[in-house]
């Protein structure tokens, strides 16, 4: 039978979450410290791609789009990732800087949601990270007209080889249209899966005076 005509009953797919609990009293008063704790646990658990996060953006047309990017730094100033400024996400951020990030570590039955404003980081920071990457990755980033329609993979390969012929490993410059964004959070939610869908959710909201208010919200 054609797979398109096979009905899959998605309503019976269930996973019960039993590993851990999360309370307002058990978390750090600082959400960045709490995030570091959870990220460290995800790394130590050998989770595949623990820094992978879904970046959701929406431009002037208010139509959201989402994709997976990699977190490269997190500190009190925010969450940093790198991309092509002329990509779809880059164009949407230019129109509307308010974005959302989502981490899901299924092995730990945990999710983190972050809402905030994205801004470009200092070009020197982008230079430092770009030149820390492997040569092949730098060539790919510099060659790719990200999000643009292209004739095929051969076109990309040719662009990359042209750059290789033009620039040695030591002399390949960071493209002006490639660099980092830092998401300055105004809301961070920690979600811990619990049995029978009665999950734990603890939300930090940034206050006007600069501190964080912590609340439990219903699942």
Radius of gyration: 20 Å
Portion in beta strands: 25-35%
Q: What is the CATH architecture annotation?
A: Roll
CATH class: Mainly Beta
> Based on helices, strands and strand pairing, what is the structural class?
alpha+beta
CATH topology: Pnp Oxidase, Chain A
**Oligomeric state of the chains present here:** single chain
N-C termini distance: 40 Å
Per-chain topology:
Elements: H1 31-44, E1 52-58, E2 64-70, E3 73-75, E4 78-84, H2 88-95, E5 98-105, E6 110-120, H3 123-132, H4 135-143, H5 153-166, E7 178-192, E8 200-206, E9 212-216
Antiparallel strand pairs: 1-2, 1-5, 3-4, 4-7, 5-6, 6-7, 7-8, 8-9
Helix pairs in contact: 4-5
List keywords for this structure.
single chain; 219 residues; alpha+beta; Pnp Oxidase, Chain A; 9-stranded antiparallel beta sheet; 5 helices; 32% strand; globular
């Amino acid at each position: 039978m054609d797979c398109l005509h096979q009905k899959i009953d998605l309503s019976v797919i269930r996973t019960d979450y039993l590993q851990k609990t999360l309370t307002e009293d058990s978390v750090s008063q600082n959400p960045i410290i709490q995030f570091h704790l959870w990220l460290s646990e995800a790394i130590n658990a050998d989770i595949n791609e623990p820094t992978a996060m879904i970046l959701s953006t929406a431009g002037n047309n208010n139509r959201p789009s989402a994709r997976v990017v990699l977190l490269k730094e997190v500190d009190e100033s925010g969450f940093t990732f790198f991309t092509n400024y002329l990509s779809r996400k880059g164009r949407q951020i230019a129109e509307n800087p308010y974005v959302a990030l989502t981490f899901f570590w299924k092995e730990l039955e945990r999710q983190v949601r972050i809402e905030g404003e994205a801004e470009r980081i200092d070009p020197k920071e982008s230079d430092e990270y770009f030149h820390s990457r492997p040569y092949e990755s730098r060539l790919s980033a510099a060659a790719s007209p990200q999000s643009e329609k292209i004739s095929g993979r051969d076109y990309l390969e040719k662009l990359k080889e042209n750059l290789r012929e033009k620039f040695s490993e030591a002399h390949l410059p960071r493209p002006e249209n490639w660099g980092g964004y830092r998401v300055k959070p105004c809301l961070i939610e920690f979600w811990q899966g619990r049995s029978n869908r009665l999950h734990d959710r603890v939300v930090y909201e940034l206050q006007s005076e600069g501190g964080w208010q912590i609340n439990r919200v219903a699942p």
